[in-house]
Write a structure and sequence with these properties.
Shape of chain B: elongated
Distance between the termini of chain B: 32 Å
Number of strands of chain A: 13
Strand order of the largest sheet of chain A: 10-9-13-11-12
Shape of chain A: rod-shaped
Order of helices and strands of chain A: HHHEEEEHEEEEHHEEHEHHEEH
Radius of gyration of chain A: 36 Å
Structural class of chain B: alpha+beta
Oligomer: heterodimer
Structural class of chain A: alpha+beta
Radius of gyration of chain B: 28 Å
Number of helices of chain B: 6
Distance between the termini of chain A: 36 Å
Number of helices of chain A: 10
Largest sheet of chain A: 5 strands, mixed
Strand order of the largest sheet of chain B: 4-5-6-7
Helix content of chain B: 40-55%
Order of helices and strands of chain B: HHHEEEHEEEEHH
Strand content of chain A: 15-25%
């Protein structure tokens, strides 16, 4: 148990900040509305239109320029602004060809602006349009040239339109940016914010698992039946009368404490605060009390480590390591009773 | 009044009882997810001939114009490659069709043998097919978001690999294996959505996160008391 406690403390010191960051970032991610994060909250509904009306003017796939057909993984007939188009997919991107003459269709600044304007239903106007190249932080799952259309809404929405296909690649906004920052903290990938299989997080997670395991095992030693007295479990009940002496004031006091409870805590709940730094953790050794010679209990390992042998023989024990068993008389450090009255 | 150290220690202890086990589950499930390479989890090493490349035939047995005439209300039409051969796909009012490009004949829905051939064409392992079934309703959780029907082809390998083939376009829709399934289970534990394993915004999770956060902060706070305790305990001993 002492070893576990030591392990728990040191691993806690090592990883406590990251554990807190995991919890904070997890909480923020959970609290953010996913519809706002993805931007679909402000996206207009899209409709798929039938293509067959263009049948008479269609050219066949074999009539398209051969260079565009090499390496193609799929070819689909669709429409763009009322005109039939072939969309050709590759492992790393797509291209649109006019389905009546095979010419390449790209989306320019004006087209991208129009597509973004039609998509965004939020409260804001277009403030700027910029061209860029994916992948970057906000378009990291895409390839190729894009148009970034910036809006003046409160969430600073940016709609990314593919310069090749006119597709909406991403809708980014303040919600997404906040989420992405905390996602970065959560997965500990500070550059790409994408790779959660990185060595840093694996190392920290491996160490932190010991914090969890040791903490979980410590849980079993931290509770006694008495902690659950409110459940009224069958078994030993009743109170013991503890007589308290304080040499400084020559005062004497008796308290009735529940049998089976922790002596340090029970005294504390009766406003008798023994000196302590660690708060009853068996670490500082300050909550010493002297048991009357007739009722000195066995000293445990923690007490052996923290109380010199001479004092132990005189009946000194640590209140935080003792359980209330029988009626007993205790000598408290001078001034304890007076200070707490 | 209880001393702050006493309050903090007891808060940490009781919060530990309340969420300690969940925190342990978060750590364990998180560790599983970061340790196993995500490409492996996605089953990338289990497949070959991906992505399939489409060869456009000069003189196909059917043309886009034909199909557009036959299905005037089609919402989608296209070309796909299945086992190296080219096919035309049509989606019309929810019905989907697959035509062989060379003969122009309708081949969908694909039968069991074809589904098995496609699965073996893309399977990079050397195990045999152990079971084939057509899933038309009540899909297993691992394909809960996918459109049905789907052929499920199970391989007798140590990963318990399953391939899902779409009978209407011959595509390898997805692949699953034991470590994916464990990953999915871990994800469920991580986001505490035990029903659909998708919603990371549920009240149970948020409650646990807030308790967990208090748990962590009280623990960090205790470190201050603990370490100043052990320093004083030491100086006293050497005196």
């Amino acid at each position: 148990m002492r070893l576990l406690k030591k392990l728990h403390k040191w691993v806690g010191l090592l990883t406590g900040i990251q554990v807190t960051l995991w919890l904070v970032s997890g909480l923020v991610i959970s609290l953010l509305d996913p519809a706002k994060v993805s931007g679909r909250h402000w996206a207009s509904a899209t409709v798929t239109k039938p293509q067959a009306q263009h049948a008479p003017e269609l050219i066949e796939p074999a009539e398209l320029p051969a260079a565009y057909l090499e390496e193609a993984t799929a070819l689909d007939l669709g429409s763009r602004q009322g005109r039939p188009v072939y969309r050709i997919s590759y492992a790393n991107g797509e291209v649109l060809l006019d389905a009546t003459d095979g010419s390449v269709i790209t989306t320019g600044e004006a087209g991208a602006t129009e597509l973004a304007r039609r998509d965004f239903t939020g409260d804001g106007a277009i403030v700027s349009v910029k061209r860029g190249m994916a992948p970057d932080l906000e378009t990291r799952n895409h390839h190729g040239a894009y148009w970034r259309v910036n809006f003046s809404d409160k969430a600073s929405t940016a709609i990314y339109i593919s310069a090749a296909t006119g597709d909406i690649l991403e809708r980014r906004n303040a919600f997404w940016r906040v989420r992405d920052f905390f996602w970065m903290l959560h997965i500990m990938d500070y550059s790409g914010r994408e790779n959660f299989n990185n060595a840093l997080i694996i190392g920290v997670a491996l160490i932190t698992l010991w914090l969890g395991i040791s903490g979980f095992l410590l849980l079993f030693g931290s509770f006694t039946r008495h902690d659950f007295f409110f459940l009224k479990l069958p078994g030993k009940t009743g109170h013991a009368v503890i007589t308290l002496h304080d040499p400084a004031s020559a005062a004497q006091r008796t308290v009735r404490l529940r049998k089976g409870s922790n002596l340090f805590l029970s005294l504390a709940t009766h406003d008798i605060g023994l000196p302590s730094i660690c708060g009853g953790g068996g670490e500082c050794g300050k909550c010493r009390v002297k048991f009357e010679s007739t009722g000195v209990p066995e000293a445990n390992k923690i007490e052996t480590g923290l109380i010199p042998g001479r004092l132990r023989e005189q009946g000194y024990r640590l209140a935080c390591q003792q359980t209330v068993v029988n009626d007993v008389a205790l000598h408290l450090p001078g001034g304890t009773l007076a200070n707490n009255q | 009044m209880l001393k702050p150290a006493v309050i903090t220690r007891n808060l940490h202890k009781w919060l530990g009882l309340l969420v300690g086990f969940q925190v342990l589950l978060w750590l364990a499930s998180g560790l599983y997810m970061v340790v196993l390479d995500i490409d492996f989890i996605h089953g990338d090493p289990l497949v070959k001939n991906m992505p399939p490349l489409v060869t456009v035939l000069k003189k196909p047995g059917v043309t886009m114009a034909d199909l557009a005439e036959r299905y005037p209300n089609a919402s989608r039409m296209g070309l796909r490659s299945v086992m190296g051969k080219t096919f035309y796909t049509v989606t019309d009012a929810g019905n989907r069709y697959l035509f062989a490009a060379d003969t122009g004949s309708l081949v969908s829905p694909l039968n069991e043998n074809t589904a098995r051939d496609i699965a073996e064409y893309h399977y990079a392992g050397d195990a045999r097919v152990s079971r084939i079934s057509l899933i038309t309703s009540n899909p297993p959780m691992e394909i809960q978001t996918r459109a049905l029907p789907l052929w499920r082809i199970d391989f007798d390998d140590r990963y318990a690999t399953s391939f899902y083939i779409d009978p209407h376009d011959g595509a390898l829709v997805t692949r699953r294996h034991r470590y994916w399934r464990i990953f999915d289970f871990m994800w469920m534990l991580h986001i505490m959505d035990y029903e659909n394993r998708q919603d990371a915004h549920n009240p149970l999770l948020i409650t646990a996160q807030i308790s967990g956060l208090l748990f962590a902060i009280s623990g960090m706070w205790l470190l201050i008391y603990s370490f100043s305790s052990s320093r004083r305990a030491k100086t006293r001993d050497t005196r």
